[in-house]
Amino acid sequence: ANLKNLVSAKALGECLDSLVFLNKTAAEVFSNFEIHAATDITGFGFAGHAMEMLDGSDLSFNISLDAIPIMNEAREMYECGVTTGVNQTNRNLVGNNWTFPEGSTTTHQELMLDPQTSGGLLVAVPEDQTPSILKALHEAGISSSARIGYVSSFNETKLIFT
Prior knowledge:
- The structure is a single chain.
- The protein is an alpha/beta fold.
- The protein has helices spanning 9-20, 24-30, 45-54, 74-79, 87-94, 106-113, 130-139, and strands at residues 37-40, 59-63, 98-99, 121-124, 149-153, 159-161.
- The strands form 2 sheets. Strands 3-6-2-5 form a 4-stranded mixed β-sheet, covered by helices on one side. A two-stranded antiparallel ribbon has the order 1-4.
- Helix 3 (45-54) runs parallel beside helix 5 (87-94).
């Protein structure tokens, strides 16, 4: 979007700040807790990396679309038709393994397929530790950290977006 002069200077600045903010601090926080699985969100997008975490398991991720932190103006860029050359490849990897709620748009899907240069971490933790982990992350300055869903026994598909 920036190459097409469609994104605002403010949104670009926030994006660049996010790119240079490494996952080191989060990893240090996580070292104090029980982590069941983790991945960094990069080229395969959120959906591809979530699938990677479930590989070989009889589990499903139940994910709230509204809870996932999305960069400022990313949604608007997809609504304007801006996409990446990798989104279709990522769709081919996960397309038979996800469901979206009725009424969701292709923009929701595209955001979950968007390849990141330096995305955040997706971490599976015991539910009872989630509040403590989020508190520690927020205190460490990682304000975009959030509980985005839960893991369940396999239920029709691997990724269930709500």
